[in-house]
Amino acid sequence: MRPLYGLLLLTFRELWAKKIVLGLFLISSLVLLVVTFALNLDVVEGSLEGIRLFGQNAAPSGEGAEAQTQMTLNRIVVTVESVVAGAAYWIGILLSLFASAGLFSDVQAPGRVELLLSKPVSRTQVIVGHVIGVWAAIALLTIYLMGGTWLVMSIKSGVWNPRFLLSIGIVIGMFGVMYAAVMLMGVWTESTALALIVAYGLIFISMVLAGAGEIASVLGPVGRPVFWGLYHALPNFTEVTTIVTSLSKDQAVSSWYPLISSVLFARRDF
Amino acid sequence: MAPAISVSDLSKTYRTGLFGRSSVRALDGVSLTVPDGAIFGLLGPNGAGKTTLVKILLGLVHPTAGTASLFGTPARQPSARERIGFLPENHRFPGFLTAEQTLHVYGRLADVDGSARADRIAALLDKVGLGDRRDTKVKTFSKGMLQRLGLAQALLNDPDLLFLDEPTSGVDPVGRQVIRDLVLELRDDGTSIFLNSHLLSEVEKVCTQVAILRDGRLVREGTIEELTAVERVYDLTSTAIPDEIVADAALEASPDEAPSDGELRRYRVRADNRSSLNDLLDRLRSAEVAIESITPLRRSLEDYFIDVVDEEMPPS
């Protein structure tokens, strides 16, 4: 276990030294500060009496005020939480991938990989130690941002939406899937740029795959199975967004398949 | 007891180009044994396959054919590396770590226990002359300091076999001396050392055995004394030899240009065989020549190496 712990620690130190953890921590803190101080909810006996954003009154006024006051406190909370979850999913994962993609290329660099592999550790241990280190760091940051948002919003409003916490796991899991793709390409081609291009390419393709139902129906007998093959084989990054949003909104998830197929994709990499 | 290194019929072909259609044969049927406690020097021109051989022994490269083992354990198993230390030629430490942190990281990877590791790191940093730089970031280190830190890293687990790849490359004479002294100290402690170096004078000073690789094949192997001895040529130190013996063309004795101290003189003796050498010695004693010493003539390892490398290579 000691060598694995050493690899984990080395990855943590590297993330810290390259200011990746610090940068993501500062961005997360900024979001939490906005949620904590810039958004004020005036809750009186469990109902929303007013909203102030950056000190300005954001509560509905004028002609449509009556309709808008019907907006429940619950909806405000889930809206804020789903915005943060969506941002963590899309912006957070893309930023994290961009920031961490070069790490394993550094590990594989001539002069460094020899030092690592000359120790009594297997190649699998080197990869596992590195991946666990990166995932753990991103997991802590995700818990800090999304867990913090959930806690602040729940305390301020008194509305506790525990299903939102499940979306933390999905963000961490999806980062893991995409980082696995980056690692696979990084190990195979030893090119950080190509690894990122492939990861972002997979995300772009997932946007097309999200419309699988409509697109497949207009394809011919050859195109349709190919399209469905891609749908089942590649990570469904875009579609998983709907699961995150549903959880944030405390709604039932209609299908977990995009998440399951994405996790299976990560398993195939190794 | 298993030898420190055992290599049998080892070959490695690198596939290059698109779809691996081109190939480069880096090693071709290499077999050698390094006994426990030996200081072994691996020599060869650039591209001879030295680095490939070292990488196979460390499990960094998989052989195309043949076997390699360290202390009887197949080299590809991680456990084979439990008793070894390695200093690569152009190693790169994470620059954001201090010298001490670097050794802790690599000590953990070498599975060195925490308290023992701290003591060993302090002792090793002092030993390689970096005791006062333990808290300095590695990125500020000079090439010589990095090399010394690399050596400390290789010794963290108190290895029984140490691989040194060009250990004095880019190091100033003082640093070179520190490294050489450390290698000699390890040799005296019984550590086996596998030295890969272009500096033949260094190899000659520390190694007991050498092997020469050329075009992926092992072309010579033996002790330094065996390899550098010039066949049937001797240096003779004695009192003056009578001219008629010196002039005897059959014995090919000739005086050295510079006479040594007092009445002693040096001669180079060529003898076709053991019998003719003994005949000469008998004649010298009969002529009341006092013999101080007679030793086989040796070339420098560098001269020998150049001769071997320039030789016509037999077809494989």
Model description:
The complex is a heterodimer of chains A (270) and B (316). Chain A is mainly α. Chain A is built from 12 helices and 3 strands. A 3-stranded antiparallel sheet of chain A has the order 1-2-3. In chain A, helix 1 crosses helix 6 (123-157). The radius of gyration of chain A is 22 Å and the shape is flat. Mean pLDDT of chain A is 78; it is low at 265-270. Helix content of chain B is 32%, strand content 30%. The two termini of chain B are 34 Å apart. In chain B, the strands form 3 sheets. A 6-stranded mixed sheet of chain B has the order 6-7-8-3-9-10, with helices on both faces. Chain B has a 4-stranded antiparallel sheet with strand order 2-1-4-5, with helices on one face. A 4-stranded antiparallel sheet of chain B has the order 12-13-11-14. Chain B has 2 domains: 5-226, P-loop containing nucleotide triphosphate hydrolases (Rossmann fold); 230-298, 2-Layer Sandwich (Alpha-Beta Plaits). In chain B, helix 2 packs across helix 3. Chain B has helices spanning 50-57, 99-109, 114-127, 143-154, 173-188, 200-206, 224-228, 243-246, 274-286, 301-310; strands at residues 5-16, 22-34, 39-43, 65-70, 73-74, 84-87, 161-165, 192-196, 209-214, 217-223, 229-239, 253-255, 264-270, 291-298. The A-B interface holds A 2-3, 5-7, 9-10, 13-14, 17-18, 109-122, 125 and B 55, 58-60, 78-82, 84-86, 88, 90-94, 96-97, 101, 105-111, 113, 153, 163.
